[in-house]
TrEMBL record:
<dbReference type="InterPro" id="IPR036291">
    <property type="entry name" value="NAD(P)-bd_dom_sf"/>
</dbReference>
<dbReference type="GO" id="GO:0018456">
    <property type="term" value="F:aryl-alcohol dehydrogenase (NAD+) activity"/>
</dbReference>
<dbReference type="InterPro" id="IPR002328">
    <property type="entry name" value="ADH_Zn_CS"/>
</dbReference>
<dbReference type="InterPro" id="IPR020843">
    <property type="entry name" value="ER"/>
</dbReference>
<feature type="domain" description="Enoyl reductase (ER)">
    <location>
        <begin position="10"/>
        <end position="363"/>
    </location>
</feature>
<dbReference type="Pfam" id="PF08240">
    <property type="entry name" value="ADH_N"/>
</dbReference>
<dbReference type="GO" id="GO:0008270">
    <property type="term" value="F:zinc ion binding"/>
</dbReference>
<dbReference type="GO" id="GO:0051903">
    <property type="term" value="F:S-(hydroxymethyl)glutathione dehydrogenase [NAD(P)+] activity"/>
</dbReference>
<dbReference type="Pfam" id="PF00107">
    <property type="entry name" value="ADH_zinc_N"/>
</dbReference>
<comment type="similarity">
    <text>Belongs to the zinc-containing alcohol dehydrogenase family.</text>
</comment>
<keyword id="KW-0862">Zinc</keyword>
<keyword id="KW-0560">Oxidoreductase</keyword>
<keyword id="KW-0520">NAD</keyword>
<dbReference type="GO" id="GO:0046294">
    <property type="term" value="P:formaldehyde catabolic process"/>
</dbReference>
<dbReference type="InterPro" id="IPR011032">
    <property type="entry name" value="GroES-like_sf"/>
</dbReference>
<protein>
    <submittedName>
        <fullName>GroES-like protein</fullName>
        <ecNumber>1.1.1.90</ecNumber>
    </submittedName>
</protein>
<dbReference type="GO" id="GO:0005829">
    <property type="term" value="C:cytosol"/>
</dbReference>
Length: 373
């Protein structure tokens, strides 16, 4: 079937909305989803500009939310009319998937970042020519087909326009704290960067009972929002020495945990320097940058640890409903970071994300959608 999609034709090119993209037929375990909305993530931008290896032309987008239109004969968890949030695809069969760690799926890259479907077939074509996909999803589309394991069912009364970013940005930041670092009540945490991922990490720090949740950025308006969402303290790193300020806030010791969402070399190194003895930092940005380590003093003598985390070590079918429950309870106000844009204004929305003007742009793909109906 023909669909409308935002296509990036070559590295660093602008989005072009086309209406002649051919969507692949459904497989036995596929569901066809009418897209309502999609968040724009910094990972989309990383692939657009070529920071990660991918094919072009490509249809990006991996924070989609929509309504199931059709299901394949082997689908057991969904039916037409179900509301869903889309996330990454894991095979479910490898040793890591069977251990309950789908973010470490042995086939993760092939399934999500190869540009083709898990079986190697084209997800999208144009005039018979291959168009690459992302996350076996490509949510910058009016309709897509995904595997059953890509989708998470959500309550019909929730506003689908808000929920798409739960599939990546929000589950990554919160999952890094809740699933990987697992702070205990009374611990301290510093989060570098107050984008969607960083703010989600801060809210998770508050949920975990951290007595110090320190938000670090260079934009005062974002730091004000961080305080509203749960940061106990904020630091504008443009004006002060971050390491000294964190030490002042923690009786000279440093924090138990830190999270870097910026991918900037100096900042990633600061996320190590602010740790107390035995502390751990999680570096979770998609970045080509590297860091310089003092392996003797930091890693050996001070017993500090550095961990990488993919997608918040999440199981979307468990973690996304958990975040929704936190949201309903007023503990995870992720929608305060969002701003809606028309699908046709995707270039403007992406630029607002790149510049930092908007924390989480959300493309409204179906303007006729009415929440709760």
């Amino acid at each position: 079937m023909k669909i409308k999609a935002a296509v990036v034709e070559k590295q660093n090119a602008d989005f072009i909305i086309k209406d002649d993209i051919e969507l692949a037929p459904m497989g036995a375990d596929d569901i066809q989803v009418h897209m309502v909305a999609s968040g724009i993530c910094h990972s989309d931008e990383a692939l657009r500009v070529g920071d990660a290896v991918i094919d072009y032309p490509i249809i990006l987008g991996h924070e989609g939310a929509g309504i199931v239109e059709k299901v394949g004969p082997e689908v057991t968890q969904f039916k037409p009319g179900d509301h869903v949030v889309l996330s990454f695809y894991a095979c479910g069969n490898c040793d890591n998937c069977l251990k309950g760690i789908p973010t470490q799926c042995r086939n993760y890259a092939a399934n999500n970042l190869s540009g083709v479907r898990p079986d190697g077939s084209d997800h999208f074509t144009e005039s018979g020519e291959h168009v690459a996909d992302m996350f076996d999803q490509s949510s910058f589309t009016t309709t897509t087909v995904v595997r059953e394991r890509n989708a998470v069912k959500v309550d019909d009364e929730l506003d689908l326009r808000k929920l798409g970013p739960l599939g990546c940005g929000y589950v990554t930041g919160s999952g890094t704290v809740l699933n990987t670092l697992k702070p205990r009540p009374g611990d301290t945490i510093a989060v570098f960067g107050t984008g969607a991922v960083g703010l989600a990490a801060m809210m998770a720090g508050k949920i975990s009972g951290c007595t110090k949740v320190i938000g670090i950025d260079i934009v005062d308006s974002r730091l004000e929002l961080a305080k509203e969402l749960g940061a106990t303290d904020v630091i504008n790193s443009r004006n002060v020495d971050v390491v000294e300020e964190v030490k002042k806030l923690t009786n000279g010791r440093g924090v138990n945990w830190s999270v870097d969402t910026t991918g900037i070399t100096q900042v990633m190194e600061q996320s190590i320097q602010v740790l107390t003895q035995g502390g751990t930092t999680a570096t979770i940005a998609v970045t080509p940058n590297h860091i310089d380590l003092d392996t003797w003093n930091d890693l050996c003598v001070d017993d500090k640890k550095i961990v990488g985390v993919n997608m918040g070590d999440s199981i979307p079918q468990i973690d996304i409903p958990r975040l929704i429950e936190f949201y309903k309870a007023g503990m995870f106000d992720f929608d305060k970071t969002e701003k809606f844009f028309k699908f046709e204004d995707i270039k403007e929305a992406n630029e607002a994300s790149r510049s930092g003007e908007v924390i989480k742009p959300v493309l409204i793909i179906d303007p006729d959608y009415v929440p709760g109906k």
